[in-house]
Amino acid sequence: MLQISPEKIAHIIIRAREYDSGVNAWAHQGGGRQHGTRTELHDFIEGLNEDEQASLVAVMWIGRDSFDASELEEAIRTAREERTTPTEDYLMGEPRLSDLLEAGMDALGISPEDAEDDLQKPV
Question: Pfam families in the record, alphabetically (predicted)?
Fold first, then answer.
């Protein structure tokens, strides 16, 4: 069972897309830890609990076809057991993170568009 909400995954997808595109003026603020999209994304992933981080990695692996959607539990278990670097560093090193998370959500029958829309509703 997935231990992270679709909305949290959608938040990461949106921020990863902004960071990768460079659209956000704060996205690429030099090499240090700045107050921009990179830092926000890094800190958000770092702030997830271990179960959420393992589930997030599993969704990404399913999106890149390392695991099938039917192997979700195995992917989560593998993410826990094989973790050697901080999850935030591992995931942010993946250049297609947003695409892979979207594909993983789709494979699991979760609509990334619906989750993103829920985050971006006007107030």
Answer: DUF3775
Compute the half-sphere exposure of residue 81: CA atoms within 13 Å on the CB side of its CA. 6
d(CA 27, CA 15): 9
* Sign of the Cα pseudo-torsion (112, 115, 118, 120, in order): negative
30-70 pLDDT, tens digit per residue, is 544 445 788 899 999 999 999 999 999 999 999 999 999 99
Structure tokens at 94: 């993946």
CA 54 to chain centre: 11
- In this structure, the number of other CB atoms found within 10 A of the CB of residue 28 comes to 13
Question: What's CA 3's distance to the chain center, in Å?
Answer: 13
